[in-house]
Amino acid sequence: MYGIHRTEKRTRSSVYGLQIEANRTQEDHLKGREFHGSDIDWAKTNSNVFLIKNDNWNKTITETLKDNSIKERKTSIVLLDSIYTASSEFFEDKSKNEIIEYFKACLEFHNKTYGKHIISAVIHFDETSHSNNIHMHVHTI
After folding, report:
1. Which of 91, 16, 87 is CA-nearest to residue 54?
2. CB-CB contact of 45 with 27 (8 Å)
């Protein structure tokens, strides 16, 4: 068993797409919004857990940059896009509460490693149709 962590740098042009994918709801699906690269089981979307939720990432990024006197350029990296998960064997005998506690520990690690400007942390329980693909997305300014 092992933990998995990946972080990518993102520019402003990626922010809105990441937000709608992270914050997805069954209503999005009913409106025809699909995420073709994902293996979403829309019946499970309401079981996703938000540890930190924000409904306007672009506004929060703009305010945070302004509050810290940071001038943004067209090519500026404004967001770290991180994912945390573990091997499927890790999740096999875990309750939902135990899984949430694991991801809370991952979020604590993230805070210590990348700073506390986290604008979103969501555990996706709805992409598990082919395997235990439970994971958490964390987005940090």
Report:
1. 16
2. no
Confidence of residue 52 (pLDDT cuts 50, 70, 90): very high
Helical H runs in the chain?
Answer: 12-22, 26-30, 57-67, 88-91, 96-114
pLDDT band at residue 137 using 50, 70 and 90 as cut-offs: very high
Residue type, 62: T
Task: Take residue 96 and report the two structure tokens written for it.
Answer: 């939902």
pLDDT in tens, 2-47: 788 999 999 999 999 999 989 988 777 777 666 666 778 778 888 9
Beta carbons within 10 angstroms of residue 16's beta carbon: 12
Three-state DSSP at 39 gives: coil
Phi–psi pair at 6, nearest 5 degrees = -135, 140
Q: How far is CA 84 from CA 13, 69, 72, 106, in A?
A: 23, 31, 28, 7
d(CA 60, CA 27): 24
